[in-house]
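Students often ask what a 'structure token' actually looks like in practice. Rather than answer in the abstract, let us consider FAD-dependent monooxygenase, a protein of 384 residues. Its sequence is given first.
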Amino acid sequence: MSRHAIVVGGGIGGLSTALALHRIGWQATVLERATEMGEIGAGMSQAPNALRALAELGVEEQARAAGAPTHASGNLRTPDGRYLQRARTGDTSALLAFHRADLHRVLLEAVPAGWVRTDAEVTAVRQHAGGVSVGSGDGELTADLVIAADGIRSTVRRLLWPEAPPPRFLGRTAWLGIAPAPGLPGSITLGPGGYFLVHPIARDRAYWAYVTTADAPGIRDDQEKAEVADRIGTWHDPIPALVEATPAEAVIHIDIYDLDPLPTYVRGRAVLLGDAAHAMSPDRGQGAGQSIEDAVVLAAALADEPTIEAALRHYDTDRRPRTQAIARGARKDGDRTTSRAAHRAMVTMIRLAPAPLWRKGIAADGNATWRWRPPRLPSPTTRP
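Now compare that with the structural description of the same chain:
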């Protein structure tokens, strides 16, 4: 008899989970509170670890077609335009950059028709012998398992982990945008107190983000585009041009939060996944990628272990150390790259690093995070 899971949240983590469950022969119902499916935000990059997980989900080819190679981690600059490290012409990029909506669409198109329900906000979760029931706007559903992929302000986490602390403001804020910009290779410009990231994305566009410190969350300006343009001032080309080419109404301003580590991602037949479990600062580019990893590991455990309870223990033991270590590292990286006091030392260290050693560190197997390999999922043709 086929098992059934309720997946709360229809973002990248939730859709990856539904697709992973489909690969192992489970049924899933994805409850998305928005009235229409889509992905908010602007851009992101996916590292080799996440790309391998997408391959295990069977969508690597589609993802690569929707993304663009980016050399941002190889092109590090100062605001006056000098290169601290520079990617060589012809170098293969280990990173692939996306508009968030493009990767979301790839996953949504791969999930079986009828599995996603929109306008379905979860209001209650009730565990009982042998399963779990989830209440939403259209009544109550019962399943073998509920998987919470509903983001940093997860309803399921609030209901079942009431003792968990709320998201923590990290003292940083960011402006994001998408602009037409053919031919950019990607770069990170390190200024005193903030950095400017550029990723090329599909259809001759670029995603940009300016990240800096903030005294408190929620500080906003009536003219956000003018505010970020003023802050980057005379930084090197093409930074001012990217901001100028972005429609004012399309400039996004967000504050940056993460979650303190939880002692477990599992409670009975409920499990947390992605940002609901381990929301992290974007400074290592691993937030969405870790949710895709989570989905593959959880599905593999459900396929391999004799019981759901054993599978959830496997998932918890596997995922908590890795995701929480990456979240700690991202928090530290963000503190370092937005610190005025640390700026000079950081720039000097990067400039003095031998270029071959730097390139080795950003190769596909250059660091422990990127070297991760997913467990194997059965293909649809080999699944029992």
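One point worth highlighting: The mean pLDDT is 95. Ask yourself how you might have guessed this from the sequence alone, and why that guess would often be unreliable.
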